């Protein structure tokens, strides 16, 4: 079975400071990893993904994430937070085998960036 | 580009009523899925489809039916609504069941069962 953990329900940072939203995963096989963002009363929007290759992936709005296979982590980062980054963030995992279609999402982390 | 369109946006049902949540995508995506989002529980997969005529159950399928007669449409049917089905429902699609593509989500249907 595959699972995703986002250990922090809430992350608070000041505008201009770096931010990190944590994600760890558990799968049997090679993972595909994704980050999505959800603004109030909206659907989820794709930020970035790791499929293979470079462990550091860059995505939308200045976000990046680092795949760490030994720690089974895929933390989301941004060097300088904006108030407009405040939202709910989800990490998701799939595996590259016959488990077709089944993505597993974390419970989400609410990011609040204060001016 | 419409993307993934869900209707209705809001719905109130009485216990025992049935209804269908509509989902359509115009991106010719093979893979479509339904999730429910509840506070503190993330997104849970209800049903999914890897192509027209093919559907399968996800994590929480009880009380819901789906069908996929066309590539574009993937309706979710609530057979007999229960208060436990009060939730926000999201439809998502991605271009291939091979799973390396990101998902595109609709804007959600907020359902209340009284």
Features:
heterodimer, A: 115 residues, mainly beta, six-stranded mixed beta sheet, four-stranded antiparallel beta sheet, 0% helix, globular, B: 114 residues, seven-stranded mixed beta sheet, 11 strands
Describe the structure in brief.
The complex is a heterodimer of chains A (115) and B (114). Chain A is mainly β and 115 residues long.
Largest sheet of chain B: 7 strands, mixed
* Shape label of chain B: globular
Give the helices and strands of chain A as they follow along the chain. Answer: EEEEEEEEEEEE
β-strand amount of chain B: over 45%
The secondary-structure element order of chain B is: EEEEEEEEEEE
Q: Which residues of chain A sit in consecutive blocks of at least 5 with pLDDT less than 50?
A: none
Which pair of chains forms the biggest interface, and how many residues does each contribute? A-B, 25 and 27 residues
Q: Helical element count of chain A?
A: 0
The description of the largest β-sheet of chain A is: 6 strands, mixed
Number of separate helices of chain B: 0
- The gross shape of chain A turns out to be globular
Number of strands of chain B: 11
Structural notes for this entry:
The complex is a heterodimer of chains A (115) and B (114). Chain A has no helices and 12 strands. In chain A, the strands form 3 sheets. In chain A, strands 2, 5, 6, 10, 11 and 12 form a 6-stranded mixed sheet that branches. Chain A has a 4-stranded antiparallel sheet with strand order 3-9-8-7, with no helix packed on it. In chain A, strands 1-4 form a two-stranded antiparallel sheet. In chain A, 0% of the residues lie in helices and 52% in strands. The model of chain A has no long low-confidence stretch (mean pLDDT 92). Chain A is globular. Chain B has 114 residues and is an all-beta fold. In chain B, strands 2, 4, 5, 6, 9, 10 and 11 form a 7-stranded mixed sheet that branches. A 4-stranded antiparallel sheet of chain B has the order 1-3-8-7, with no helix packed on it. In chain B, strand 4 and strand 5 form a beta hairpin. The radius of gyration of chain B is 13 Å and the shape is globular. The termini of chain B are far apart. The mean pLDDT of chain B is 92. Classes of the chains: A mainly beta (115), B mainly beta (114). Chains A and B meet through strand 5, strand 6, strand 10 and strand 11 of A and strand 4, strand 5 and strand 10 of B.
């Amino acid at each position: 079975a595959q699972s995703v953990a986002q250990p922090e329900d809430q992350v608070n940072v000041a505008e201009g400071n770096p931010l990190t939203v944590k994600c760890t995963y558990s799968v049997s096989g090679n993972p595909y990893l994704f980050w999505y963002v959800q603004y109030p009363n909206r659907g989820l929007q794709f930020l970035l993904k790791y499929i293979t290759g470079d462990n550091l992936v860059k995505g939308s709005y200045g976000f990046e994430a680092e795949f760490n296979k030994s720690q089974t982590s895929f933390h989301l980062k941004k060097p300088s937070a904006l108030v407009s980054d405040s939202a709910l963030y989800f990490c998701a995992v799939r595996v590259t085998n016959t488990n077709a279609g089944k993505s597993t999402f974390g419970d989400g982390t609410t990011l609040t960036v204060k001016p | 580009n419409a993307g993934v369109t869900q209707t209705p946006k809001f719905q109130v049902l009485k216990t025992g009523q049935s209804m269908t949540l509509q989902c359509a995508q115009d991106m010719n995506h093979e893979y479509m899925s339904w999730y429910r989002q509840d506070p503190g529980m993330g997104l849970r997969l209800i049903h999914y489809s890897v192509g027209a005529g093919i559907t399968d159950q996800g994590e929480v399928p009880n009380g819901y039916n789906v069908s996929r007669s066309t590539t574009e449409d993937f309706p979710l049917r609530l057979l007999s609504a229960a208060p436990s089905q009060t939730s926000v429902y999201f439809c998502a699609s991605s271009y291939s069941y091979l799973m390396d593509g990101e998902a595109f989500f609709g804007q959600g249907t907020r359902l209340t069962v009284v």
